[in-house]
Amino acid sequence: METDGTEVVQAQPGKPVNPGEPPRPTQQPVEQPVEQVPGVERAREAKQALRRRVRRSRAARTGEQKRADEVSLTRRVLTHEAVRRASTIAVYASLPDEPGTGELRAALHREGVRVLLPVVVEGEGPPTLDWALDTGPLATTGVLELPEPTGERLGPDAVTQADVLLIPALAVDTSGVRMGRGRGYYDVALARFRDLRPNATVIALVHDDELLDASTTPVPAEPHDRRVDAVITPRRSLSSRA
């Protein structure tokens, strides 16, 4: 439950909590892949259009907005029940346009939580994320030039040590369908995580305007896409798992 005066909203298909509030997420079997939408190519095109729109919106955000939202997001994540119970949490080191996680990582360390960060594995083969302990320092590495931890690599299966997986997204709808940047790294990691830790919690972190109403503006889905259990923004917390 939220402790800042706002409850974590439990999913009730298509109905808002109070008049004027956005609809709550519909419950879905989170461990199963999303059903294929008619026309995979059409879904891919729709995703590209949505990605362009989100990137334009993110580019317009000011530094002041980013700082304020990072503080609000950190507070909201820390009061989520699954996070409060967790001893190990996997999170991401945020890019400049993503919901910031620097404050969150520091707060988790202060609470004594073991924090894992992803490391992109380059080369041929399927997109793969390795994992390492978050010891503080980050280095911009690899062809993608992502901020990554400098500590010992623990292997792709290390993500299954996490009780909660906090992941980035460009958009998520109220049924839990997530859209990333299109490279597939988190799709593969989520499949691994679901297989080995089916009862652990996956939470997507997005900006407020990137949480979309599934009844009117659903995120386009492809067969490989996986739903998340919850979505947290600086001002909202939605959950599809009781």
From TrEMBL:
<feature type="compositionally biased region" description="Basic residues">
    <location>
        <begin position="49"/>
        <end position="59"/>
    </location>
</feature>
<dbReference type="Pfam" id="PF01812">
    <property type="entry name" value="5-FTHF_cyc-lig"/>
</dbReference>
<comment type="similarity">
    <text>Belongs to the 5-formyltetrahydrofolate cyclo-ligase family.</text>
</comment>
<feature type="compositionally biased region" description="Low complexity">
    <location>
        <begin position="27"/>
        <end position="40"/>
    </location>
</feature>
<feature type="region of interest" description="Disordered">
    <location>
        <begin position="1"/>
        <end position="70"/>
    </location>
</feature>
<dbReference type="InterPro" id="IPR002698">
    <property type="entry name" value="FTHF_cligase"/>
</dbReference>
<protein>
    <recommendedName>
        <fullName>5-formyltetrahydrofolate cyclo-ligase</fullName>
        <ecNumber>6.3.3.2</ecNumber>
    </recommendedName>
</protein>
<keyword id="KW-0436">Ligase</keyword>
<keyword id="KW-0479">Metal-binding</keyword>
<keyword id="KW-0460">Magnesium</keyword>
<keyword id="KW-0547">Nucleotide-binding</keyword>
<dbReference type="InterPro" id="IPR024185">
    <property type="entry name" value="FTHF_cligase-like_sf"/>
</dbReference>
<dbReference type="GO" id="GO:0030272">
    <property type="term" value="F:5-formyltetrahydrofolate cyclo-ligase activity"/>
</dbReference>
<dbReference type="InterPro" id="IPR037171">
    <property type="entry name" value="NagB/RpiA_transferase-like"/>
</dbReference>
<keyword id="KW-0067">ATP-binding</keyword>
<feature type="compositionally biased region" description="Basic and acidic residues">
    <location>
        <begin position="61"/>
        <end position="70"/>
    </location>
</feature>
<feature type="region of interest" description="Disordered">
    <location>
        <begin position="215"/>
        <end position="242"/>
    </location>
</feature>
